[in-house]
Amino acid sequence: MSWRDRLRALRVDTTPLRTSRDFRLLFLAGTVFYLGGMVSYVALPYQLYRLTGSNFAVGALGIVELVPLLFFGLYGGALADHVDRRRLLVGTGLAQVLLTAVLMVNAFGPQELWVIYVVGALLAAAGSLQRPSKEALEPRTVSHDQITAASALSSLGVQVGLLAGPAIGGVLVSTVGVGWCFAVDVTGLLVATVLFAAMRPYPHENETTPPSLRGIGEGLTYALRRRDLLGTYLIDITAMLLAMPVVLFPALAEDVFRRPELLGLLYTAETVGSMLATATSGWTSHVHHHGRAIVTAALAYGAAICLAGLAPTIWGTMLCLVLAGAADMVSGLFRATIWNQTIPDTMRGRLAGIEMLSYSLGPLGGQVRAGVVADLWTVRGSIASGGALCLAGVAATALWLRDFWSYDTRTDEHAVRERSLRQPLDPA
Length: 428
What we know:
Number of helices: 18
Largest sheet: none
Oligomer: single chain
Distance between the termini: 31 Å
Shape: globular
Strand content: under 5%
């Protein structure tokens, strides 16, 4: 194989975009949703830090969001396995529009601190209800053999929003204020909701289970009994809980490097790495041992975060964050592939709710850990120690779940079953 053929093999597979109208709508909705959301993501911690001067106050937003995330994430998954998932996307999208508008009004007014925390909790509830439906719908819009490519493309669309959003947010924060950041987010949420509404209905193919504690318990039991799924959850929670530095970016830019104008670039550095990994993700379709890929990528993430805390310049820190973003993207891509290729549609919503908790609880808890350690020690120390702890935690988890390391999509019983069931139903 020539070097040109090798380069072509690395390119992201765009087949799902060309063959599925509804996947295109989901792709566009995710892009504009995260574009607006990341503008607010820059504005909220900056607003809290300017109002309080405390890293803990910024991290406390994660504590406030934790309870609704726990409850509504699981309930939203159960709801997605019973109701029309498209309608749920639209309804929760409209709720997010109204709540973000409240943040916008507050930012243009006296900037009450309690409003930020209360609305933050309500937004976490609305997002937790919405996300399982979106993730449960995606595998229905593409054929089974295109699930990995669809996951990569969805991530790429999100990354476009993640890359442009913080840059726009950084400019708006430093020029016209945080209120305009929330105005951009409101616009993005409206557009995404309209795109969700334009999708065709996806009725459930089998008898559904009404939302209940019993139904949620069935989903939790199913997830815990499958060690391949348990591995995807625990590896990600461990990495994010111990090595999530994002909450410290305002202090890192303003107090450590004294370059507040580069705050937006700190937020986008990991996304640049994610985009590079996604754009060259063609090789992933040839990997079958997904557990090994997830563990290796998580270890690389921890090492990069540790080096980011030790880097002597802001540019060195950004380079390490780029590497961390690439590693995290590889891990996320293979986790999504395991989920979408092995979980039956009757359980997909409830398991999507559990998955959302796995990649949300870690970052939220990581915000608190990073903020507390930074206030007790130093910002650099918090970041570097988090990366080191991530290396130890991921290695210990992989040793405990040795069968996760040996996962092979060609022979795994769940992957084989779903492949045989999906093939007659795949869209042409």
